[in-house]
């Protein structure tokens, strides 16, 4: 049985774990000992380490044949220092991982003015957050090429689930852009992202990026209206872009400044993915049933 290391033990990692236990000897990199009990009960072996502390990462060198990297970059800086520390630690092992799957973001493409794009699109990050992701991808790809590690990158857009919906935003009456100024947004249900991680483990090609998204083509305001209608909430007020720039914070505006429609043919044909929720409507309907059981 191969050893597998999960780096970044958040929501998606918890959804992936049941698919791995029994197939791999799973190790979970954790910086908080209080989380050890949950992961042990779920079938994983906790490893105390911190991506912000290079010395603590010495214990993962040579530990696993497979690595799943879900951790985000740091909140500041031009590069992903966490990725660099992780790869440096892995490189010191007597053996290197054979395969590594990384969850990145579709933000690496920047604003595409609503164009439909695939993974061959030139990367043009428009925010420091996305630039750190590009740095992480490039470092990881170089590591894979130099060491013969099969690296698969899943570029995830907006991740949603029953507990990851804009309910609070709608309750507060936070506005969205009017239809004429609105941006296309892309989505993937958290359970389907977990499915794609496992598909990449089995079928992912070396140094290959995949748009990890569903089949929907929906503008942001339409998504909010869908959730509002399903959960009986008032629709989000609409503003023009000029009004939004005067009233909303820079962080809120940053999510309204990029428009793209992701093509997902690679996950269909190369990863043989059959999504549980192929459209946002499917996932939101399931979320309503989960939150309102009969």
Structural features, described:
The protein has a single domain (3-162, 187-216, 261-278), classed as Rossmann fold. It contains 11 helices and 15 strands. The chain is an alpha/beta fold and 294 residues long. Helix 3 (81-91) links the parallel strand 4 (66-69) and strand 5. It has a 7-stranded parallel β-sheet, sandwiched between helices. A two-stranded parallel sheet has the order 6-15. The radius of gyration is 20 Å and the shape is globular.
SSE order: EHEHEEHEEHEEHEEEHEEHEHHEHH
Helix tally? 11
Q: What Rg is obtained from the alpha carbons, in whole angstroms?
A: 20 Å
Name of the CATH architecture: 3-Layer(aba) Sandwich
The secondary-structure class comes to: alpha/beta
Low-confidence stretches: none
Q: Give the number of domains.
A: 1
Identify the CATH homologous superfamily: NAD(P)-binding Rossmann-like Domain
In one word, what is the shape? Answer: globular
End-to-end Cα distance, whole Å, is 42 Å
Task: Profile the largest sheet.
Answer: 7 strands, parallel
Helicity range? 25-40%
Order of strands in the sheet with the most strands? 3-2-1-4-5-7-12
Which fold name is given in CATH as the topology? Answer: Rossmann fold
Mean pLDDT: 96
Top CATH class: Alpha Beta
Approximately what portion of the residues adopt beta-strand conformation? 15-25%
- Overall strand count: 15
């Amino acid at each position: 049985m191969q050893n597998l290391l999960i780096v970044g033990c958040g929501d998606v990692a918890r959804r992936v774990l049941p698919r791995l236990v029994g197939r791999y000897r799973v190790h979970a990199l954790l910086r908080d000992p209080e989380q050890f009990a949950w992961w042990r009960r779920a079938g994983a072996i906790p490893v105390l380490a911190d991506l912000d502390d290079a010395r603590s990462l010495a214990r993962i060198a040579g530990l696993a044949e497979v690595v799943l990297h879900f951790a985000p970059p740091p909140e500041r800086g031009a590069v992903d220092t966490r990725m660099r520390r992780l790869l440096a630690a892995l490189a010191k092992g007597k053996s290197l991982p054979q395969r590594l799957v990384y969850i990145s973001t579709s933000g690496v493409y920047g604003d595409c003015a609503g164009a439909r794009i695939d993974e061959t699109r030139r990367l043009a990050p428009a925010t420091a957050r996305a630039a750190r992701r590009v740095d992480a991808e490039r470092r990881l790809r170089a590591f894979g090429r130099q060491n013969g590690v099969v690296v698969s990158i899943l570029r995830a857009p907006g991740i949603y689930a029953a507990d990851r919906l804009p309910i609070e935003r709608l309750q507060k009456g936070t506005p969205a852009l009017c239809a004429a100024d609105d941006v296309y947004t892309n989505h993937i249900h958290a359970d389907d992202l977990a499915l794609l991680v496992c598909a990449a483990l089995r079928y992912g090609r070396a140094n290959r990026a995949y748009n990890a998204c569903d089949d929907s083509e929906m503008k942001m305001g339409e998504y909010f209206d869908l959730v509002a209608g399903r959960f009986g909430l008032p629709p989000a007020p609409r503003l023009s872009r000029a009004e939004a720039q005067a009233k909303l914070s820079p962080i809120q505006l940053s999510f309204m400044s990029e428009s793209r429609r992701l093509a997902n043919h690679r996950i269909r044909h190369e990863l043989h993915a059959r999504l549980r929720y192929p459209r946002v409507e499917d996932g939101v309907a399931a979320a309503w049933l989960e939150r309102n059981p009969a």
